[in-house]
Specification:
mainly alpha, globular
């Protein structure tokens, strides 16, 4: 199988030159097709709006700065001492494998949501009574406690957000960017390139051989989040309160996540990443072709 993968990658990389078209004016390389400056501005505006909304509801929330939100985004699939490949091998994408049902502010260990909220907001939350903690997170996050701003921004899916976070996002992002169907326009351009299409077809075939029916690596994490949400009542079911059958189902999902993540990550690194980087470089090059 390894020979087949390498041969396919060689054929795609060394196919006759077909430089990608220039990226449309205004398209950036960051999340949601923003430029680095636009991303900083969007983060700062959203956080200020969240703080204002929370104050209107009688809660203290300190607007996290850009670096704090970025730290939460960078914490995704990251633990000290582990490479991303090692993390994925042990924990998959970190979707179901770290699930406890606890609010992010009360979790310990790996939790990008907690990191992105910032230490000051975590401490504010922990000083509240249990009843006030429930009310606080309902105001801040709505029904899905895992969909903090930093997490939603990192996975580029704002559709799961709620509460003041959602309200702030509606004033910062475009309506179509708030939908689950939204796809980064840069990624869409890359996927349309004939070289990437050929590579994705090879990726699909290899994934299917081991029993995984996905058309693109980007489909896997949303599928895992949907499965976890269905199993845990939208992320509100504590593991300690699960029935024996529910715990068994969670373990099964975690095993599935580890297997599909490890397979997808390895093949994506081998087959897709070199081509993606080449096309991206061409898209955002200002040289005359």
């Amino acid at each position: 199988m390894r020979k087949t993968i390498c041969a396919g990658l060689f054929a795609v990389l060394f196919a006759p030159a077909m430089a990608a078209a220039q990226a449309p004016k205004g398209l950036g390389t960051e999340e949601f097709g923003m430029s680095p400056r636009e991303l900083v501005q969007a983060i700062e505006k959203t956080e200020q709006l969240i703080a204002r909304c929370m104050a209107d509801q009688g809660f203290q929330y300190i607007a996290a700065d850009h670096n704090t939100v970025r730290a939460g985004m960078s914490a995704d699939k990251s633990l000290p001492g582990l490479s991303e490949e090692e993390f994925v091998s042990r924990y998959g994408f970190g979707v179901s494998t770290f699930y406890t049902g606890l609010p992010p502010q009360l979790s310990t260990g790996y939790n990008p949501a907690r990191v992105g909220l910032g230490d000051r907001n975590v401490q504010i939350f922990r000083k509240l009574s249990s009843a006030d903690q429930v009310a606080y997170n309902r105001a801040l996050l709505g029904d899905d406690l895992s969909s903090t701003f930093a997490v939603a921004l990192e996975i580029e899916d704002l559709s799961r957000t709620g509460g003041c976070t959602r309200k702030a996002l509606t004033e910062t992002f475009k309506p179509d960017q708030l939908k689950a169907s939204h796809y980064n326009p840069q990624d869409a351009l890359i996927n349309k390139d004939p070289r990437m299409k050929a590579a994705l077809e090879s990726w699909q075939r290899e994934m299917k051989k081991v029993g995984f029916e996905y058309g693109h690596p980007d489909e896997i994490e949303p599928d895992l989040r949907n499965r976890l949400s269905a199993l845990t009542e939208g992320g509100k079911l504590l593991v300690s309160k699960m029935s024996a059958d529910q715990k068994a189902a969670l373990r099964k999902l975690q095993d599935f996540e580890r297997l599909v993540a490890a397979k997808s990550f390895k093949m994506s690194e081998d087959m897709l990443k070199p081509i993606e980087e080449k096309i991206q470089e061409e898209l955002f090059s200002r040289k005359v072709q």
